[in-house]
Amino acid sequence: MKQTTLPIGIDLGTTNSAIAIWRNGQVELIPNSLGELLTPSVVSIDENNTILVGQAAKSRMVTRPRESVSAFKRFLGTDKVFCLSTQTFKASELCAIVLKSLKADAEAYLDETIKDVVISVPAYFSDQQRKEVRLAAEIAGLNAVRLINEPTAACLAYSLHEGQVRRFLVLDLGGGTFDVTVVEYQDSFIEVRASTGDNYLGGEDFSDDLVTAVLERLHKEACDVSLKDLAAIRSVVEQAKINRVGPSITITLPSPFVETLEFSSDQLQALWSKTLSRMTQPLSQALADARLKPELIDDLIFVGGATRLREVQQVATRLLGRFGKCELDPDLVVACGAAVQAACRLRDEAVEELILTDVCPYSLGIEANCGSQRGIFSPIIERNTIIPVSREERYYAIDKQQVDISIYQGERFWARENIFIDKLQVAVPKNKAGEEAVDVRFSYDINGLLEVDVTVVSTGEVQQKVIDRSPSGMTPEELAESCARLAKLKFHPRDAQPNVALIEKLHQLYVEKLSWEREWLQECIINFSNALEYWSDAEIEIARKEIELRLKELGFS
Ligand code: ADP
Ligand code: MG
Fold first, then answer.
1. Which of 2, 459, 505, 518 is the most buried (most CB within 10 A)?
2. Secondary structure letter of residue 30 according to DSSP
3. What span, in angstroms and rounded, lies between the C-alpha atoms of 453 and 394?
């Protein structure tokens, strides 16, 4: 297969991922092996040590919670290790498995190999987290030519769609991340004015709140319920939340809890009030950082599956005094925007005139002393400065022949409470205390490369350090080891994936349902498993389609 020249964008989501290409002047979303545009970012491992990704793995969250894992993107940048059966994985490796599956989908769709991609990340992701996304791409055999902030990607998708809009506020509430971004679009220029958020707020929290409320009604604590039962409760709660039609939510609990619970609109408002209130601060902060009053926002854009919750939309509408837009599918708009960005890089004619600037999402500075106060954080590039940027500050060396420059990122007063990035030492000539000065210049570019130049003022001597944000964080040996480990993992052949997904779904439903439904599911599992063993591929496909249709009719999928 030859390598594609088409621009490719990937939304590697906490909950769901998607991949899109730019072809014939427009975005095309790529379906996975089940024909779906969204692939759950879930990984599971079966009895034969074969890896499952996407819907099949999501079903196994219910039947095999110990061998399945979701929401691992939240743990990028940490040392957390996930145990799946007998194997262990880092968050970056699990992300690589999802990326690998998206890569296979795109390659099957295009009949070409893919390599260069644009991947979206939450605007609030730290440097280390971004580094690990690049690393995950590398492990998956991809080259992340650019990372784009998710809300920026959403704006790119919308601006092509809309033409004339001037100021957007993008509210992106996904499964586990919340991003608020103010973006200005003018004369083909897209500029991020402010970007803030909460790395630990998302649709999952709304499901968790509902699960807690369900357990309360059952007079149980989470620790009284087995992991499997808890996963089954969570699954029906999540489904009920997503399928809600009216103001209330009805939850039919799985066995052994034979009960149907109803939560009224007022009860939902009450049980979600704390989670909803966590949206307020980032929303106000984004407006303050962009120095904008709500009335100066032209459009409020909803991105992320959880913005479909009416309570979420109400909070934003109340704070901003306007209704939000969601004409483009909030789940897919980020992948579309990433593909648009990929096309921009390759200068496709239809997007040529779009120029993108971005902001540094966190303050970058050094540790300094001020009077008797030691270890204060002195920002050089402030949060939400438009990049690329270069800024310089002068510092005085107090009775020392050597100045230690410790570089941090964050927003806290004390340097030690921020994230340490790197340090360098500069020798200064002997001089009187407080008189020798150094100029520290930070230059930060659009790919997240920070260059630090320290100039000793009296001698003009310069010391430079480029802080590498390319996929390091792992030594080349560790990277090679991860690649080798992943290469050894077994995956189901693509053709077999719809069958595997159906079997896993039937097992999941078996856990969740009772009486005649359970009997019918049992029969389906037995018949379909037999079919898989003895029938031809064509016959299996007919049987699968029949069962899938029946599941739809019963409202099970
Ligand atoms: P991510 O960006 O984290 O991958 P998505 O944008 O795919 O996430 O959103 C996933 C979240 O959206 C999940 O928590 C899911 O429960 C929630 N969600 C999806 N559809 C709906 C819906 N119709 N109503 C409420 N929440 C929804
Ligand atoms: Mg998302």
1. 505
2. P
3. 12
Which helix H or strand E contains 23, and what residues bound it? strand 16-23
Q: Which atom of ligand 1 is nearest to the CA of 331?
A: 6
Closest-CA residue, ligand 1 atom 11, reads: 175
Quick one: pLDDT at residue 380? 95
For the chain, the C-alpha Rg in angstroms (whole number) is 26
The closest-lying atom of ligand 1 relative to the alpha carbon of residue 206 is 14
Among 371, 372, 269, 366, residue whose Cα is nearest residue 311? 269
Task: Reply yes or no on whether the pLDDT at 471 is more than 50.
Answer: no
Nearest ligand, CA 37:
1
pLDDT band per the 50, 70, 90 thresholds, residue 14:
very high
Q: Are 350 and 127 in contact (CB under 8 A)?
A: no
> Hey, what are 359's tokens?
């902001």
Identify the H or E element spanning 189. Answer: strand 189-198
Q: Which ligand is nearest to the CA of 38?
A: 1
Strands 81-84 and 87-90: antiparallel
DSSP string, 250-285: EEEPPTT---EEEE-HHHHHHHTHHHHHTTHHHHHH
Strand ranges inside 100-142, DSSP E: 116-121
Check residue 349 and give its pLDDT. 54
Q: Phi, psi (5° rounding) for residue 33?
A: -65, -15
- List, as one string, the DSSP characters of 353-391: T-EEEEE-SS-EEEEEEETTEEEEEEEEE-TT-EESEEE
Say if ligand 1 is within 6 A of residue 203 CB: yes
**Closest ligand 1 atom number to CA of residue 243:** 23
Does the C-beta of 138 come closer than 6 Å to ligand 1? no
**Is the CB of 204 inside a 6 Å radius of any atom of ligand 1?**
yes
CB of 331 shorter than 6 A to ligand 1: yes
